[in-house]
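for the writeup, i need someone to sanity check this before i put it in the appendix. the sequnce is what the collaborator sent (i think, or maybe the updated version? ugh). structure was predicted straight from it, no edits. if anything looks off just tell me and ill rerun, i have time this weekend
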Amino acid sequence: MRKWMSHAIVLTLVSVLLLTSMAGTASAKSEFLKEGTIVGKVSKAQLKGSINGIAITGYTFRDSLWIPVSHLSQYGFDIQANGNSGPIRILRNTSKPVKGMAADKIKKPTSKLTNVHFTQKDVLLGNRKLTTYQIDNSAVIRLNDLALFGEVLWNGQSKTLELKLGNMEYENTLGIWIAGDKAYNRSDKQINEISIKHFFMYRGNLYDVSEVIDTSGKQFADIQGLIDPDSKEKLVDTYIGSTVEYVITSTGDQIDNPYLKQDSDYYKSKTMAEDVLFQLKSVKTYMEAAEKEYYMKLKEELKNNGNRPLKFVTQKITYNRFGSPEVNLSLKNLTEKKVVSFELTITGYDGKGRIVKNSITGESQVKGRAKDFGKYGPGDVIEFTWVMDFYNDMVKANAKLTSVKFSDGTVWRAK
């Protein structure tokens, strides 16, 4: 008997999420949360927001005021978006007047519990990745995240958070733009080397690591990103953001990023740490719900399978180079337990539907036992091939499960 194994995805990460670093910011990509997953609701007690005294739509969530990114084009900012897949980039334009949205476009505070959704969309302030959610089909960011362009003031009497803009534009003097896994040189200099600092959470702590990229004068270069020291795979959910440290020109000059400290302080701030913890909670909630749904479907499948713990997914006949038939079976574990072994019988039939007997022993049925196949947990599918020597006329097979042994020592037997 030759055996091959393949495993279905089983949602058993909930406890791992609590103990390790499998968390990410709300602005990070996620391997767990889907676009549009509900992560909360806006607060009943709504704050108000304004920029230079002009009202802007705001939503109160997690003790912060969140504003629509698309509205900022009317408040002294330029918004750059490269299709649905690219990031949204916010740029301050001091020559642009703060006009505000039309009165009928400004959403007034309400007690309606509007849903807050997770989004994979990146919103960048320069190269700084901002924590982002989606509310009322719009990407939203904290009003406080625009504080580097001026001063954020709180008016307790009117419950209004106001941004008073200054003249700072947060200019990208290096001319290096980060977009996903690419770094683009938009400067008038030939750049041979770019150093990028990545920020991430690992085992409950915030860290940073530098990645030096040899660009050799190219206009763009690939960013490898962060590699998990345990799995050796690229970090996704633990990634927080990146910023450029410096560039080396073709003449050997090093030009430092004047905003490195500001970006670093943002990524390592208490607010960002709280965002990470909230995202962890959201992932845990999502995984628990998904796991519950998964096992409910598994129980229904078990019921439809006559409560037999293993389901034959495929049964087919092939022939090896000696002409002997091979029965290829795949079985799915429909229980919530791990399987350590199982037994079955295989009956072969010829082209006329007659039972084929072993030409040497005369046996009309083969008894098989499978074990030592490693992990075989809930929902997993195992595949194996049984060589039917001396059953040369067989063109069809019928396999029946007779017993299954589980890791807890219990045994199921066919009636």
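The mean pLDDT is 86. The chain has three domains: 2-8+305-413, 32-170+263-268, 171-258.
thx in advance!!
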